[in-house]
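Instructor's aside before we start: the two examples that follow are unrelated to each other. I chose them only because their records fit on one page, so don't look for a connection. First example below.
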Amino acid sequence: MLARFPVNIDITEKEFECPLIVKTLSGSEGKGVFLCENREHLEDLMDILNEVRDVNVILSKLILICSN
């Protein structure tokens, strides 16, 4: 989901379960990619990103791939 600031945490929780991945649109090569393990992490991250600058983000569910 593409989200604009301010991100509505309640709507995000309805669409995604934690943990979730938050990616800034300006990041590349792993920079600007964050793992939010719970609502508190997401709230803290949104506060930090808002302090730095207003940014748009992509929210996605965490997909783990296990290979044997």
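Example two begins here.
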Amino acid sequence: MAAAGRDVPRLLYLGPFATMTDRFAVAPLLIPIAASYHVSLVAVSGVASLYYLAYGLMPTLYGVMADRFGRVRVIRVALVGTAVADALSALSPNLTALLVARFVTGGIACGVFPTTLVYLADRFPFKVRQQAIANVLVFVALGTTAGTLGAGLTAHVFSWRFFFLIPGAIALGVAIGLRGMPESLLARSRQNPLKQVAMVLRHGWAILVLALSVVNGAVMFGFVTYLAPALEANGQSPAIAGAVVASYGVSVLVCTRVFGYVARRTPAALILAGGATMLLVGYAIAGAAQSVVTILAASLLAGGAYAFMQSTFQTWATDVVPEARGTATALFATAIFTGAALATSAVAGLASANRYSTLFVIAALVTLPVLIFGSLARWRYQGSDAIGSLTPEC
């Protein structure tokens, strides 16, 4: 299995690059979109929260299809759909049309990254899987940087509409390029989709990971959305805000490069705890003041949290129910982005009222359960080969 993993083509990683570029473009574009349509930031926040909601609702369907029809086929179809939905986003004549387009984009794009993780999980054993996932996170980091920096610059120089065409074009190119890529499954599931979901939900560890992932999604993706608007609300241009928040992606890139060294010497529970601590400190700094320096620090720390904490959760999710890996990973994505959508919507009023200090303090407090309970649970988890379900002692 490990040898097969070394044969994974790098082109596969460009799928997550395209969808991350698309997802992280939204933050620096919120205020320009609001100005373009002459609406409030609260109304425009739906561009992010509806994307996250759809991204959270649909992965289970993709997971079931990936188990039944194959990982590569699902990835390619989702990439083509993302390209079409991005074009609709760029052409939206009003806010309502844009909200619908971004909801559709989120509901399609969510078939790419989680299914890529499943493909890698098929190829790599659990003991070395997190390093394989860290490798794809390099492309996630590059996509994150390209999205935040490129969207801010494009909105400042041209228009917010233009940028959506770029990840769409990349997605279409990758879908074409993946023709002929071998599948990772020796046999495909023929089980009823509802039974596959039920199989996952019967595992105690799966339930725990999914519950933690809702909170993790809120702090890792939901509140982070407001780092760029916090700078713009304090007088910075979308270009400056995008450039500052793009440091998130740079941090992910750097941290994933050192991840292998850390992972070989550090238990996964401590890696998770370290990432959660970075995120908590970052929100505390952003809560103190919303200057270029503080938002830069918060973005760098959030990027580190993604590389260490999020990759630990992603690897964990691929192992809790290996006999229904695609469905389990999809439910994980559903939990993550349900939390992100809830958080983005819940604090939109604070952002609209320029109460960013309160917003980021709340984010820091919500990070605490992930730090405490997530680290303790991961410490007790030994892998599917050793423990198949949550025991009473846990």
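Residues 1-5, 385-394 have pLDDT under 50 and may be disordered.
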